[in-house]
């Protein structure tokens, strides 16, 4: 098979040639855009799921739908070491530019508010020339979105931006990736702002994406967040969608898969979009001709597994300290024992008790708290419920088992 015509695209956030299995989310979002534009009440949206299921790809696809609807959009990626003001200022600035409001005075007023919001991030007493400048030419507007209270300032900022969009009969959507990494104070402020904006009927929504415990993060901040957002769990693809993710791009290149090859691919990838792209790319390169057969998949598996072991699993494992790696391996061993006892596949074990990990290591749970907390902060594990933990990466337990 010609490697130049290889259609598959394994990469972080890189859109696959066929965005299979996400039609429901895309159609729902189009309805949200139209309803908000018409002044109808709608909730902001939160996408959750493990790494490698395509949350960032879907987030970008939703942003594309908003752009086609002529909305103003901006995107940021949350980081544990960065507060919200600066990246949100840049995202909102981009959204205002996309709106294309014809009244320059109104636009300058809102840009000045964005500038005031952004520069409040500087330490008290900072000289004007030393303050961070978000690249806005308009002068800052004193007394608006610059109180220093992020909750007050965020409400004022989004209210002004929403008013600008409402003048045009459009909307503004802010997309936040890795939302679980926001500072707790910023999470609280964002929830409060979304609540206030929805009550005011302004055309502003937030679309966030994060790990499975993101709803718990939001709920811990504001109890009403359970009703504030529309939650969508993004999971692995069903068999039909996984087959389409492989077959449709191949057909566009005048190639095909034998039915047994598609079956073998689903067994190997578990339907996880990133794995489908990784296996598809290697299978295409090793197959001598079309149709791609089950034997070709068998030949491709070692190379695909090796690439995943280095780039997808290994890069994350290397971030862990020796003590943290011991904890990860113990989690895998507990999951293996649970799977064996219940007659399940290892990948079907969603989480393990922290007490069982401690017992396996012969330690008290309290003594393992530093390792567990560090792994949580690094995004290698998450806790969906009290006393239980799980890997954020699918097949990670299998990887640890095979690389003991």
Low-confidence stretches: none
**Which structural category do the helix and sheet elements fall into?**
alpha/beta
Tally of individual helices? 16
CATH architecture of the largest domain: 3-Layer(aba) Sandwich
Class of the largest domain in CATH?
A: Alpha Beta
On the 0 to 100 scale, the average pLDDT is 92
Largest beta-sheet characterization:
5 strands, parallel
Word description of this protein:
Helix 5 (150-167) packs parallel to helix 6. This protein has helices at 23-37, 55-68, 85-99, 104-119, 150-167, 184-200, 214-221, 225-228, 239-252, 259-269, 273-286, 294-317, 322-342, 354-361, 369-377, 396-402, and strands spanning 44-48, 72-77, 172-177, 204-210, 229-233, 352-353, 381-385, 388-391. The mean pLDDT is 92. The chain has 3 domains: 3-11 and 237-317; 23-233, Rossmann fold (3-Layer(aba) Sandwich); 322-402, Orthogonal Bundle (Arc Repressor Mutant, subunit A), CATH 1.10.10.10. It is globular. The strands form 2 sheets. It has a 5-stranded parallel sheet, with helices on both faces. It has a 3-stranded antiparallel sheet with strand order 6-8-7. The chain starts with 22 loop residues before the first helix and ends with a helix. The protein has 404 residues and is an alpha/beta fold. The longest helix has 24 residues, at 294-317.
What secondary-structure arrangement, pairings included, does this model have?
Elements (H helix, E strand, L loop, with lengths): L22 H15 L6 E5 L6 H14 L3 E6 L7 H15 L4 H16 L30 H18 L4 E6 L6 H17 L3 E7 L3 H8 L3 H4 E5 L5 H14 L6 H11 L3 H14 L7 H24 L4 H21 L9 E2 H8 L7 H9 L3 E5 L2 E4 L4 H7 L2
Parallel strand pairs: 1-4, 1-5, 2-3, 3-4
Antiparallel strand pairs: 6-8, 7-8
Helix pairs in contact: 1-2, 3-4, 3-5, 4-5, 5-6, 10-11, 10-12, 11-12, 13-14, 13-16
């Amino acid at each position: 098979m010609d490697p130049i015509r290889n259609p598959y695209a394994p990469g972080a956030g890189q859109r696959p040639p066929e965005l299979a299995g996400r039609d429901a989310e895309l159609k729902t979002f189009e309805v949200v855009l139209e309803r908000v534009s018409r002044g109808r009440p709608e909730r902001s949206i939160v996408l959750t799921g493990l790494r490698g299921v395509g949350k960032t790809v879907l987030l970008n696809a939703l942003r594309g739908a908003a752009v086609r609807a002529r909305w103003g959009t901006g995107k940021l990626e949350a980081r544990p070491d960065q507060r919200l003001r600066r990246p949100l200022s840049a995202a909102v600035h981009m959204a205002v530019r996309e709106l294309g409001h014809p009244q320059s005075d109104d636009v300058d007023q809102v840009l000045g508010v964005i500038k005031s919001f952004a520069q409040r991030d500087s330490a008290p007493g900072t000289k004007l020339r030393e303050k961070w400048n978000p690249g806005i030419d308009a002068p800052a507007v004193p007394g608006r979105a610059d109180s220093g209270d992020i909750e007050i300032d965020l409400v004022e900022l989004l209210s002004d931006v929403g008013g600008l969009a409402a003048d045009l009969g459009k909307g503004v959507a802010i997309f936040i990736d890795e939302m679980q990494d926001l500072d707790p104070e910023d999470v609280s402020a964002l929830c409060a702002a979304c609540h206030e904006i929805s009550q005011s009927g302004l055309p502003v929504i937030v679309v966030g994406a994060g790990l499975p415990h993101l709803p718990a993060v939001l709920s811990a901040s504001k109890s009403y967040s359970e009703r504030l957002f529309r939650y969508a769990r993004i999971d692995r693809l069903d068999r039909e969608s996984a087959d389409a993710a492989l077959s449709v791009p191949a057909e566009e290149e005048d190639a095909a898969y034998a039915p047994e090859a598609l079956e073998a691919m689903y067994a190997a990838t578990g339907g996880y979009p990133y794995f489908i792209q990784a296996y598809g790319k290697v299978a295409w390169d090793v197959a001598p001709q079309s149709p791609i057969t089950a034997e070709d998949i068998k030949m491709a598996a070692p190379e695909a597994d090796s690439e995943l072991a280095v780039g997808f699993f290994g890069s994350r494992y290397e971030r862990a300290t020796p003590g943290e790696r011991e904890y990860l391996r113990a989690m895998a061993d507990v999951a293996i024992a649970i799977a064996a006892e219940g007659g399940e596949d290892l990948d079907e074990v969603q989480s393990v008790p922290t007490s069982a990990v401690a017992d396996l290591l012969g330690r008290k749970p309290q003594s393992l708290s530093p390792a567990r907390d560090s792994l949580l902060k690094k995004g290698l594990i998450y806790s969906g419920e009290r006393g239980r933990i799980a890997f954020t990466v699918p097949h990670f337990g299998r990887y640890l088992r095979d690389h003991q």
